[in-house]
Design a protein that fits this description.
Blueprint: H1 3-22, H2 25-44, H3 54-73, H4 78-98, H5 104-113, H6 115-133
Helix pairs in contact: 1-2, 1-6, 2-3, 2-6, 3-4, 4-5, 4-6
Length: about 140
């Protein structure tokens, strides 16, 4: 397992564990969705990003749909940020479809990069929620 994959696995596990431990229902459901999408993306990766990853794009679209619905129904701000970051991550697939000359390494890096802010939004939302409940 490459070091970057290990770092991502640790970060997504820590983020989801925190949300499951300290979050309310929206944080817990989002943690489950993020963890499931991370595992499914690893399993459905086919071409090491040399070609557009249609399986990962489908997963990203499902996660984006969930985050948009959550952002529209939630009384908190973190789902708006998470959905916004996920929009960018999902549009990277579109860029790869439109321009096949996009370097595969840039495509893969951008995919991973934009998942970190989504997880950071969940962690911040969980932290603020837990802190609010302690008052």
């Amino acid at each position: 397992m490459p070091m970057t994959t290990a770092i991502f696995a640790v970060f997504v596990t820590a983020c989801c564990a925190l949300a499951l431990w300290r979050g309310r229902n929206s944080e817990r459901w989002t943690a489950a969705a993020l963890f499931t999408s991370a595992v499914a993306s690893a399993l459905l990766q086919t071409s090491k990003f040399w070609l557009p990853e249609t399986g990962i794009m489908a997963i990203d679209l499902m996660l984006l749909s969930y985050l948009i619905v959550l952002a529209l129904q939630s009384d908190r701000f973190w789902p708006l940020y998470a959905a916004g970051f996920q929009v960018v991550g999902t549009l990277i697939h579109v860029a790869r479809y439109v321009d096949a000359s996009v370097w595969h390494s840039a495509y893969a890096t951008a995919q991973v990069f934009w998942s970190y802010p989504v997880m950071a939004a969940l962690m911040a939302g969980t932290w603020f929620e837990a802190r609010y409940r302690l008052r």
